[in-house]
Amino acid sequence: MLREYLVSEAMNALDIPTTRALSVVATGRPVHRNGVEPGAVLARVAASHLRVGTFELAVRQGEILRTLADYAIARHYPELAELPAEGEGNRYPAFLGAVVEVQASLVARWMLTGFVHGVMNTDNTTISGETIDYGPCAFLDSYDPAAVFSSIDQNGRYAFGNQPTVLKWNLARFAEALLPLIDSDPNAAIPAATAVLGTFDEHYENHYSRGIAAKLGLNVEDVDRALVDDLLTLMTEHSADWTGTFRALADELRGNTTPLDRLVPREHIGPWLTRWRGALEGHEHDTADSMDRVNPLYIPRNHRVDEALRAATAGDLAPFEKLLEVVTHPFERRDEWTEYTTPAPREFSDTFRTFCGT
Predict the structure, then answer these.
(1) Which candidate among 154, 165, 175, 348 keeps its CA 20 to 30 Å from the CA of 120?
(2) Helix, strand or coil for residue 21?
(3) Which of 70, 123, 222, 251 is catalytic?
(4) What is the pLDDT of residues 158-201, one digit of tens each?
(5) Does 185 qualify as catalytic in the annotation?
(6) Measured at the alpha carbon of residue 9, what is the angle toward residues 8 and 14, in degrees to the nearest 5?
(7) pTM confidence score
(8) CA distance 174 to 157
(9) Where are the domains of the chain?
């Protein structure tokens, strides 16, 4: 529960849509997870707690599906309420499209920040487009598309690089639930829903492209996808820290080459840097500062979170409160917080696992 409190506040500071944690209250009862741990109850607040799973349940109840959909539209997408409830051009394909768009934007932000949700089932996919349920979540240290931290994800379904695909699968379940509202004739409803769902890839790519361009100090129209892919290949080959690499690129522009040299050998990244600087030609002189405004310096590093939670379990909340202060100020460098920028030791990352909190 303290993990959810900490990480959701960090996500909010990173400007990633998220539910928030109102409070954590100890129950006084033991919970058997990774050993015996003290139990607690989290009070979570959100724009609403409607999920794809809510609609999967409602469609099995039949008569409440339309009521639920209209409530969700009124709460989250009120502009769609003006569309008719039945017939051609009704509001429900547009409702599906709105959720596809906000979820494509959300998962792109996860990917740009190195966030691994860990349990992306349909009950953890919100209609509002907010991140929900931080039980087995984690953040990348070294870049690895196959990174998995959740103890329950034995086959890597929710691995970092799989998140957009899994999210699209979840949205397909949402589309299935809405079919009776989209059209009473399945032969018409299925193609209509499929067409809307098919926009996910374009929405995701647009959001991701804009975000990765900003992380590299570029305008989206100046980004060569090969430039991005080659950087990711270098980061994978050298196990480069995701968060640290992008901050080091800004330092590189300021003439401080040491941070990047610690991550990727100069002889390997040098040709890529030449291409990147070529793409930057003609940009404003404050490129490094603009990069720092979108590339965090402080994230909830897994080993720091683990330390803070272990101390809290033992009765000392000071490390937790300190870490909370750091991760809710993610972009502005403070010399006294240098220790919070360091990736976890490799031996920690190789064995680190997270557990569902419920």
Answers:
(1) 348
(2) strand
(3) 123
(4) 999 999 999 999 999 999 999 999 999 999 999 999 999 999 99
(5) no
(6) 95
(7) 0.95
(8) 19
(9) 52-209
